[in-house]
Amino acid sequence: MAILDILLYPDERLRTVAKPVDTVDKDLQKFLDDMFETMYKAPGIGLAATQVNMHKRAVVIDVSEDKNEPLVLINPEILTKEGKITGEEGCLSIPGIYDNVSRAERITFQALDRDGNPYEMEADGLLGVCVQHEVDHLDGKMFVDYLSAMKRRKINKKIQKNTLRTSN
Ligand code: ZN
Hints:
The chain is an alpha+beta fold. Helix content is 29%, strand content 26%. The protein is built from three helices and seven strands; from the N terminus they run αβββββββαα. It has helices at 26-41, 125-138, 149-167; strands spanning 46-48, 58-61, 71-82, 85-89, 99-103, 106-112, 118-124. Strands 1-2-3-6-7 form a five-stranded antiparallel beta sheet. Strands 4-5 form a two-stranded antiparallel sheet. 30% of the residues are buried. The model has no long low-confidence stretch (mean pLDDT 96). The protein binds zinc ion (ZN). Zinc ion is lined by residues 91-93, 133, 137.
């Protein structure tokens, strides 16, 4: 297994719309294993292929406390959305930035698992939010896009400052 490099906002490659996966093969499974390792090490609860510069519709998630409930979503599609929930979100591609985002409270989605078998699932709470956040990545969207222009400007300024600091 290997740790993959995570693209950092505002890297334009994070804006790429990912292409559907045609075949679930050994190469993809190895890539998914690397994504899990990268996500657990970060540490994070979700990672989209887009974030490691692979523009295919694949996501890994584990919202469990003990990090023992890995969930693979290949070609995920959100089928239904219900209610509204607002909570603080962060992102491995925007380290150190957290803000409130409104999402659907309950969703159903379909996807393929690690073996290419289709499944349908209902998700709410943290898992529901995480699925919505990761599927956004596959469409080139990030949680800061939901914030006001003023908040985004502030975040951009903070990131610029951090970049200057690390390059000095
Ligand atoms: Zn993210």
